[in-house]
Amino acid sequence: SDTVESLEVILEDEVTHVQIVLRYAVFEEADIITRSASVRNAGKDTIHVKKFMSTCLDFLNGSDKDLLHLPGRYGQERQVERQKILHQVSKIASGRGTSSHQQNPFVAVCDRETSEDYGGCYGMALMYSGNFLAEIELDQYDQLRVQMGINPKQFDFALAPGEKLEGPEALLTYTRKGFTGLSHIYHDFFRSNLCESKFMKETRPILINTWEAAFFDFDDKKLVEIAKCARKMGVDLMVMDDGWFGKRFDDNAGLGDWVVNEEKITCGLEKLVEQINEIGMQFGIWFEPEGVSEDSDLYRAHPDWALQIPGRPAVRSRNQLLLDLGREEVQEYLITSINRILDSANITYMKWDLNRSVTDVFSSALPADRQGEVYHRYVLGLYKVMDGIIKTHPDILFEGCSGGGGRYDPAMLVYFPQYWNSDNTKPVDNLKLHYGTSFLYPLCSTGAHISAASPEIPISTRACVAMGGTFGYELDATKLSPEELAECKEQSDRFRKYYPIIFFGDYYRLTNPFEGGNMTAWQSVTKDQEEALVSVVVTGLTVNGPQEYIRAKGLNPEWMYEIEQLGVELSGAALMHAGLPIPREIPQYTSFQYHLIHK
Ligand code: DGJ
């Protein structure tokens, strides 16, 4: 429904006749401006594009500004860092060939006094899944320049006369409503403008994934047993993770051979899916399309399809190499072999994983002087393969993943309504993971599961945390007691009840888990403010400490709200200004969910 105005500014160099086209699109209702650039060689000689930024923001005075970004690592993605901008050139970047675990293509430039709820804040997010750069320069006169685009590291793109290169879009915004305001703008934009999948609007299935339940050690019988128990937990979808194809008995072999391993799936895929469907569950499947094992039929037939530097030993990571996704024959192979599996049975979900960074950046399909294009061609090839698989299967729910939550970036959300947030399923760590991820990404995109990690934490609290995302299970359901299965069923039902609030509402970070308080709390409120869900996890206990309160946000101060779990009514003003008293002297890691309903 948004009216979008667009503008193109064409700049031409008088000497070389190289043209730069700056593109702007104004999404007025969403409060987003997109900006990108393209280069056209209108001259007579080949040119080399070596630095290609999508956007550049200049601030008259940046001496009172801070920079916020989302650095991380495997298992600890998107932690939040805020720092003073100093007189220097600083870089937030990935050179790993993917947007990465270590950085995220997003920066916010805010006023020094900007807080969670108040203050000026500019956001810049790049729609790109490869090497990116955000370059921040505060000059001698306190002028600040922030650029964002493709990382120039090993980037050298040749353009012959008449050729053109398009750059990725940056999503720009500004708010005076602090980080909450910034997150709301991006969450709304991502939910309504980015992902075309029908699952952005529909209720998604609750899934159980086999990875932490069985790793590579499963067969069709084991899967059926897990599915039977999972059904009792109220789960809708069973996902067969890594290990079902080729000679994949561990992570040394099989990647690239997208044919069913009949030693494990003895009944064949179609029959397995039928059995799962008969139990009343949908069936999902895992792929790592970009990876290739040297011990695979694919590699034996096409060693040149892997990225590898001639004459040098390959750099393996997780015992594997990567395919040269810039090559058309590789793209065609992946689209054909993966679609063949997806179309061979009643498959309604696919998890797309990638378990290493891009190294050995040499394509045997390109001449030596064009190797500077490999990183970028890989990303373009990836989008093409995704178009050929994801866009041709509108009824399949696709979940993105990269060794947990690496490469969780805005461009990925064009394809994936949900993205696995982290391989770290420990609930206390997830309080921070969800907090950081929520700066840019809506909860409905954040994959979160209850697992058997952290058995010391009650399953009710694990569920409370997983409901801060897409909610599902990552455990061996056959090992749960009847009481635990029943408790999971109650959780699944509760998640379905709260689904519209969590998935479509406005999200508020009520506390900052990085500040080390006694509890972490967050909240979702429906757009009409009729309902809200306040979630609290107690992570620190003070014996005989003062009464603690969690103050709600985003309610209508004039309205009365029933707190369903307490059977009491309080005004929106009381809930927001005095807060909800949290019971004292409770066991560590107790959690609370308060459902607020307008009376
Ligand atoms: C990494 C993912 O994050 C896990 O969930 C799992 O799919 C493994 N890869 C499988 O290799």
Structure description:
Helix 6 packs parallel to helix 7 and helix 9 packs parallel to helix 10 (459-466). Strands 1, 2, 3, 6, 7, 9, 10, 14 and 15 form a 9-stranded antiparallel beta sheet that branches. This protein has a 9-stranded parallel beta sheet with strand order 24-23-22-21-18-17-16-26-25. The protein is globular. It is 22% helix and 29% strand. Bound molecules: (2R,3S,4R,5S)-2-(hydroxymethyl)piperidine-3,4,5-triol (DGJ).
Task: List the ligand species.
Answer: (2R,3S,4R,5S)-2-(hydroxymethyl)piperidine-3,4,5-triol
Give the amount of beta strand, in percent.
Answer: 25-35%
The DSSP helix count reads 12
Shape: globular
What percent of residues adopt helix (DSSP H or I)? Answer: 10-25%
Which consecutive residue ranges, at least 5 long each, have pLDDT under 50? none
Alpha carbon gyration radius: 25 Å
Task: Present the secondary structure layout.
Blueprint: E1 4-12, E2 18-27, E3 32-41, E4 47-49, E5 52-59, E6 65-69, E7 81-84, E8 89-94, E9 106-111, E10 121-126, E11 132-138, E12 144-150, E13 157-159, E14 164-166, E15 170-175, H1 178-194, E16 207-209, H2 211-214, H3 220-232, E17 237-240, H4 269-278, E18 282-287, E19 291-292, H5 297-301, E20 321-322, H6 328-342, E21 347-352, H7 374-389, E22 397-400, H8 412-415, E23 418-420, H9 427-437, E24 446-447, E25 450-451, H10 459-466, E26 472-474, H11 482-504, E27 506-509, E28 519-525, E29 531-538, E30 548-550, E31 560-563, E32 568-571, H12 572-577, E33 580-582, E34 591-598
Parallel strand pairs: 16-17, 16-26, 17-18, 18-21, 21-22, 22-23, 23-24, 25-26
Antiparallel strand pairs: 1-2, 2-3, 3-14, 3-15, 4-13, 5-12, 6-7, 6-9, 8-11, 9-10, 10-15, 11-12, 19-20, 27-28, 28-29, 29-34, 30-33, 31-32, 31-34
Helix pairs in contact: 6-7, 9-10
The structure holds (2R,3S,4R,5S)-2-(hydroxymethyl)piperidine-3,4,5-triol.
(2R,3S,4R,5S)-2-(hydroxymethyl)piperidine-3,4,5-triol binds next to loops.
